[in-house]
Amino acid sequence: MPGPLPPPDRARHAGGGRRSATRPRHRGVAVVAGATVAAVAVGGGLALAVAGDDEPSCARRTTLAVTTTPEVVGVVSDVAAVLARGDECATITVSAAASADVAARVAAGAGGPDVWVPDSSVWSPSSSGAATPDPAAPLAFSPVVLAVDETTATSLGWPDRSVDAAAVLAATDPTAVSLQLPDPDTDAAGTLAVAGLGALADRVPQVDLMLAQTLGSAKAATGDATVTVTTEHVVGAPSDAGDTGTDSGSATVAAYLPDAALDYPYLVLTDDPGRSALAQRLGAALRGQVAQQALRDAGLRDATGRAGAALLDAERVAADRPAGAAPPPEALATARSTVDVLRRPSRMLAVLDVSGSMAAEVPGSDGSRMDLARDAAARGLAMLPPAAVVGLWEFSTDLTGGDDHREALPLGPLTDGHRDAAVSALESLRPVEGGGTGLYDTTLAAVREVSVGWDVSRVNSVVVVSDGRDEDRDSVGLTDLLATLRAERDLDRPVPVNTIAYGPDSDAAALAAIAAVTGGAFYSAPDPRGIDRVFLDAVSQRTCRPLC
């Protein structure tokens, strides 16, 4: 007979996985007369086996294997012990394992438990050919939040009102903030956060840039401020004094993302009638009053989204807010595509207007249009990782005699030498006195240049900045340009053109049409002082490319 059961906290965390900040202090396994609870090894973690002391006379013994995310293993173990006590022919083993690990095994057909309680329906195996989860209703919730520092939270009205994630991000300089995001491949909170942040993109344009910097392995932000993605129960119910679930060690406040919550589904994966029946009984017990109260005591919301004293007494969370829900399948699919594409390195050709109008001084600034555009391009270059491939063209009418463009920097990986060459090329850009805007021919040539050597492992794109209208009398013309771009567009080898209408005299309609026909994004910066943020966003605009 194995030795005594270790304390519940050790049992809960022996299976590994994402650190739980709740570690409920009252988690004892129910042991009563006539029943024995034994500790056994299951899949590298600790399992709880519950059976009668005396071998009963059973026509058939039912053994149910249950695996849960570490933060709820104590509650599930307690309930399983009570249930098995009343059924002498039932044995229930409960083990803890990281949800991503179990999902990988199930998806690979390597076997899985009879019952699985992951931290999120993000891991639902129904799409991988496994048995349809039944029932899959949530056992509990924990909203995914941004953990922000007290100073930021106070400036946004806390503690008089809860902190909204959109307000935090809108008040933030994306180039001075590091977004700390859990790995979406191994942590559901990371995927849910991408979906929740994506829902804010229309209200907070810098969201795309923050995600690109984080998922694209861009250079670290220049500032010290950080915004950390975590969960409500980590911020609101820390396990140890002073532990907020962040790496900073400082107290933080929860800012809530829309429709982003861990939902702890109860998934029955077995199709054996006896085990399924026992699983249904266990699921019903976990939705009972006692188990739901235990989950609330652990710092989670219950199945209805209601919080318990552990959260209601924590001023750093807003336990009276709706718990939210996991995003719908289409939002999760978009989030996964976003992660996939933003992790791909760039192969980008930047094309900057150097026509005479770029020498115009910008009111309210200390420089010309050229100066501001050059500075913005330099900041965009600084945020790109070494894995990026970058090139630079300048354009004006008849710049090289026969062409409207000139190569200032060939496409190449951003090694130290290429990065230095890029900085030098940008510094050398000067407006061409009397030069016109050779937009159409240059755009077509740039797309064809990037199409040559198109790289399937990268996001291949062109960024065009122009402050005027095409003035090349011998150019292809807008109608023929759009028709040619449409005819030459290869959906399997896309080259989106992200265009920026720079200043009040730019041809916004033409630039928007070019972006639309190539699957790119169009930006408008009628006030040249806004070029910095716009250019940075255009450089990072890869969210659905090349998957759109």
What this model shows, in words?
- The chain is an alpha/beta fold and 548 residues long.
- Helix content is 33%, strand content 20%.
- It has 18 helices and 17 strands.
- The strands form 3 sheets. It has a 6-stranded mixed beta sheet.
- Helix 17 links the parallel strand 16 and strand 17.
- Helix 2 crosses helix 9, helix 7 packs across helix 18 and helix 13 runs parallel beside helix 18.
Describe the SSE topology.
Layout: H1 8-13, E1 35-42, E2 45-52, E3 62-68, H2 73-85, E4 90-96, H3 99-107, E5 115-117, E6 142-149, H4 150-155, E7 163-164, H5 165-170, E8 177-180, H6 188-198, H7 206-215, E9 225-231, H8 232-236, E10 252-262, E11 267-268, H9 273-286, H10 289-297, H11 309-312, H12 329-342, E12 346-353, H13 369-383, E13 389-395, E14 405-413, H14 416-428, H15 439-451, E15 459-466, H16 478-488, E16 497-502, H17 508-518, E17 522-525, H18 531-540
Parallel strand pairs: 3-4, 3-5, 7-10, 8-9, 12-13, 12-15, 15-16, 16-17
Antiparallel strand pairs: 1-2, 2-4, 5-11, 6-9, 6-10, 13-14
Helix pairs in contact: 2-9, 6-12, 7-18, 13-14, 13-18, 15-16, 16-17
Query: Strand-residue fraction?
Result: 15-25%
Low-confidence stretches: 1-54, 127-134, 218-224, 240-249, 543-548
Main sheet attributes: strand count, strand direction, barrel closure: 6 strands, mixed
How far from one another are the termini? Answer: 59 Å
Rg computed from alpha carbons, rounded to a whole number of angstroms: 29 Å
Coarse structural class: alpha/beta
Number of strands: 17
Please tell me what the overall shape is: elongated
What is the share of helical residues? 25-40%
Q: Give the count of helical stretches.
A: 18
Strand order of the largest sheet: 1-2-4-3-5-11
Estimate the mean pLDDT confidence: 80
